[in-house]
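Protein entry
_____________
===
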Amino acid sequence: MPKGSASSVSNQASRTAPVTAMRRACLAMLVLLLIQYGLGMAVNLYVKVPAGHPELGQAFAKAITQGAPALAIHASLGLLLVLNAIGLVVQGVKSGRRNALAAAIVGLLALAGAAFNGASFVSNGRPYASLAMALLTALALLSYVVALYSLD
């Protein structure tokens, strides 16, 4: 075996590890977003949202602590999705893939907007906030599909 060939294999593995990690995280994000989407539809159709509160942070807390179990799970999973989206942006930076990073940033912004509109919906009960939450979640789904595709 030529000298340095084990080193070149090791270098190649260290370069592809961030891409592999981001690919797995994107796939996990897509699965979790689909679960979240389904939960959101169930909450929209079958759950009575607690009476509003003027402050968004308190509305979010109220959804978790005083809402039906489906609403509490939906709100908690939304928070975890935003945290995961931040992690995907970090992984996008580490991967060195600009297209994947750009898609991850769009996904993070879409999820942050969906979370804001979710808290707004709990706060004021207006249907436009629910629609915005659903559309921004769809944009996040599309963003992570693009990120996954761009990692090939």
In short: The chain has one domain: 5-150. The chain has a mean pLDDT of 89.
